[in-house]
Amino acid sequence: MSGSVRQNIALGAADPTDAEILEAAEIAGVDDFIRSHPQGYALRVGERGEGLSGGQRQAVAIARALVSKPPMLLLDEPTSAMDAGAEKLLVQRLAQAVPGRTFMVVTHKSAMLNIVERVIILEKGKVAMQGPPDQVFGSAGAQPPAPTSPAQSAGGPLQTGQRTGQATGQQAGPQTGQSPSPTATASAAPAAVRTL
User: Fold this and answer.
1) Domains and CATH numbers, the chain
2) What's the pTM value of the predicted model, to 2 decimals?
3) Partner of 143 at 20 to 30 A CA spacing, among 72, 106, 113, 161?
4) CA atoms within 13 A on the CB side of 106
5) Annotated catalytic residue within 47, 50, 77, 117
6) Residue 117 catalytic?
């Protein structure tokens, strides 16, 4: 992760436009911290993301994953270094951006599970429970993961959330065969407000 913030995000797609980069940056939360910096998206980042906080590096990596608008998105502990405010905003924005795509998240934190339709709990490498979040966490003894860092929760149950959209021709639903609840459609923010 070196070069400018813009270059780092652009690595996720073949020749993305400024509008595509800005849209991904807004969803991921990069725009929240970079727009107030004097260098903006031209801010140089050192090797391994030096010059950015852990949460900011995660936001840039998420924007890179989003910029190509992939039909499937897999995020592994995407908010582990983010503060609660940045995580909350990311969850809200992803909830609007992922309908119509397959979205999977591996996490020890409960906030990300608010945007998935199905939860799979792994314990010691085996599926311990699976189903819609309210069904899984409504089961006796099942608790959503506490908002802890990965270091604090090492060895605990790993939550995998999944949302499947029309991009794959399938919809994830409860094991009972019920249809998932309807989801909001993504709305693109005006990209002409800023240039990169």
Assistant:
1) 1-69 (3.40.50.300), 70-180 (no CATH)
2) 0.73
3) 72
4) 8
5) 77
6) no
